[in-house]
Amino acid sequence: MRKEEKTILRTGNNRFLKEYNQAGVLDLIRLHGTISRAEISNLTGLSPTAAGKIVSALLKIGYIHEIGEGKSSGGRRPILLELKPNSFFSVGVDLDIEGIRFVLIDITGSIICHSFNRINKNLSFSDVIKKVKDITEKAAQDLKIDSERIVGIGISIPGIIDTENKKIITAPNMQWKDIDLETYFNENFNVPVYVENEAMASAICENWIGCCRDLSDFVCINIGTGIGSGIYTGGKLYRGVGGSAGEVGHIVVNEKGPKCGCGNYGCLETMASIASIVERVKNLPTYDSISKKYIQGNDKDMDFDTVLKAARDGEEAVKNILMESAKYIGIAVSYIVNVLNPSKIVLGKEFVKYADIVIDYIKEIVKCKALKHPESFLEISVSDIGENSSALGAAFIPLKILFGR
Ligand SMILES: [Zn+2]
To answer: How far is the CA of 111 from the centre of ligand 1 (A)?
Structure first.
């Protein structure tokens, strides 16, 4: 049994307690999959009458439904309850320089639809949020979902975010700075909107459905256009005093490296982000012959998929760049292991596209460079969720609130 199930709900009848207990019972149903009223009463400490009242309220709203009879332990066979699929929904959006990743999930966490929508670079936040509105409305219309059945929208942004006050402090890759989001949200949506840093959103996703489900101390590192991480410690997301914890992309791994957007030289992001890998391939002395061989059509630029094609095809110089980037990821991971002593580090986002080529090398570097004691507790994994992890994590934020987490 997961430790969260042992939560004893409180008795009383004020409105706060009613909502608090409703969320707790709903979460218990989610964790069990199927459960009877008697089991809810036993597990929560609520009286059978109080548990029955909460179940009736949840049935009335439509979050849950009855799915037939379970096994009897003597008397009448109990009626089983479960979350009602397709009853309520949540939207998750991941904003990136490349485009908008959109997911719509239902209350059970199943993905109902998802899409990737390219956007022009340098769009203002206002333009992007209007696009998010259009995509959301179109999906809801196609699936015939009223806005009352959408519990909320979570938005993931690559930058330093003040989640509580809904502000973008800085998102350098998007060229967004000091943006108050509440006004934009109120203008465009009539459901609650939440905002989260993209790597922290992925960490939420890994913790909710991914490979870190029962872990309380882990780090989720996203490798994409930039590099960031979401840190869980003691079962909670660690934000730091100003909300910027986890900026591992700016760990200096090579003082002689190129200048980073932050002003320093040789940050991890300049040595191992997807953008930096593509840039270094373009600077190879043999680039002309590589591009002739792998890029079809004169107007097409080198992109990461083409880089991977060349590496898999045996282009040594390209593969060496991937291996070198992996070395720097390994160095940064060993620092994180020494400082935080996590049980797992999960590498995700675009990393999953080439993990098979570099993961063993990264593990070797960490084994050499990290201290033996913290390293002995560590497992390094590749995310099995991949590119949708931030959008999904963002979609789980409204659900977490609904389930009282
Ligand atoms: Zn930097």
So the answer is: 35
- Ligand 1 centre to CA of 260 (Å) is 5
Taking only the tens place, the pLDDT of each residue in 102-152 is 999 999 999 999 999 999 877 899 999 999 999 999 999 999 999 999 999
- Looking at the structure, tell me whether residues 237 and 321 fall in a common domain: yes
What separation in Å is there between the alpha carbon of 253 and the centre of ligand 1? 10
- Whether residue 273 contacts residue 225, with contact meaning beta carbons closer than 8 Å, is answered with yes
| pLDDT tens-place string over residues 366-394 | 999 999 999 999 999 999 998 999 999 99
The domain tally of the chain equals 3
CATH number at residue 49: 1.10.10.10
Which CATH number does the domain housing residue 186 bear? Answer: 3.30.420.40
CA of 248 to the centre of ligand 1 (A): 9
Domain of residue 10 covers 3-83
Does 261 share its domain with 287? Answer: yes
The amino acid sitting at 341 is: N
pLDDT at 289: 93
pLDDT(363) > 50: yes
Q: Which of 53, 109, 105, 104 is nearest to 82 (CA)?
A: 109
Q: How much distance in Å is there from the Cα of 250 to the middle of ligand 1?
A: 4
Do 70 and 103 share a structural domain? no
3-class SS string, 356-392: HHHHHHHHHHHHHHCCHHHHHHCEEEECCCHHHHHHH
